[in-house]
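Materials and Methods. Structural model of Reticulon 4 receptor. The 469-residue sequence of Reticulon 4 receptor from Gadus morhua was retrieved and submitted for structure prediction as follows.
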Amino acid sequence: MKTAVINGSRLLFLVLWLNLVHPAHGCPAKCVCYSEPKPTVACQQQGLFSIPTEIPVRSQRIFLQSNKLTVVRSTSFSSVHNLTVLWMYSNNISQIEAGAFYGLEKLEELDIGDNSNLRTMSPTAFRGLTKLHTLHLHRCGLSELPVGVFRGMFSLQYLYLQDNNIITLHDDAFLDLANLTYLYLHNNRIKIVTDNMFHGLISLDRLLLHQNRVVYVQPKAFSDLGRLKSLFLFFNNLTMLSGETMDPLVSLQYLRLNGNQWICDCRARTLWDWFKRFKGSSSELECNVPTALAGMDLKRLESDELEGCVETSLTQTTLFNAKTRPGKFPSTENPLGEAIPRCCLGDNDKSSILSGDVKSRQITNNPLKEKENISKTKFKEMERTKNETRNKQSDGPLGTLSNDLDQSLDNINPELIDNLEPSTAPNKKKKKCSKKPKSDAHCLKGRGSTIQAPAFFFTPLIWISLAMS
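The predicted structure was written out as tokens:
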């Protein structure tokens, strides 16, 4: 009797063990199928060139990562309606057909990251994934996202888009993602954060935008982000950020803005005021210009140190100077087009913010004006220029980026920034500016007349020409 009980126990154990580890009926070749904890098909690292066709219909999890898959067809998963987890990362996928995941209404996690050839996709690729809460699209070589690609994904909470080549995002791209909490966009090529880029993200908790090429954040860009707690914008090309832009971030706790090229003058006033109200944790905001404040933390400046504004034509040569960091692209162009207002500084301040070689100090089509600009260059400025030029390039994890700025930056809405001034406008004569910095309102009086140089401006040159003749 005792022997029979022991044998019966062994038989029961064997049955249970077979049920756990023995391949289920119809398991694809090169795959392992098991039932617990959930019906699973594991085909990772099998050198597969196509998605298996004999996947059991009861499967809830499919692991296809680290193979050589190239295409996800509209019929690849049409029979597995119970699927909740699908991993296809680290393949060679270059195409996802329209409706490739249609019918997977129970799918909760989809990972197709690390497919560097997936540069485009159908606008309806994710249509029907109403219960998906996690989507991985990192390191896919994406340069843009189709309009409406996230439409109807109301349950999405985690979206990974980092390490792509995204330059811009369409307005209302995330409009349906009211439950999204984490959005990872770092290490892309985004240049302008527009007013409607994050429209609809009312539950967003974390926004990572660091290591892009952001030069400008429009005033209403964060208007829907009242629950945001973490914002990373470090290692971009920002020079200014208004307090109006930051005002909607009433829940913000962690802010990183280091590694940018901050202009610490009158245009930083509203941001400085906002920091006086901000109760969270922030990185330093290292001033780039004027030179007298270079290296200082904007937040720690005194109110009277933010008087006056740096000349537009002088500022444009210093925004990307020898301190260029990874993710930056040096340029003599004004990254905001003609958006930096002009104001007067003392003579000492004016001479102290020049940088770059002599040829790049003033960008103008007037050869006479060019000669005058060069003639005003002082010996000590040329010495400083040589030292800065030696360190112009910066090595880093992102390498040295292109010197060319997107021409679309010139199309920034002029209403967003007051007092636009052409970068080629001639400098005012020294007697126009006092030693003490003046206010914008005072310095911008009669600005319309500064576009053309006054007639007497070139008179000495004309006299010289007549004398020589």
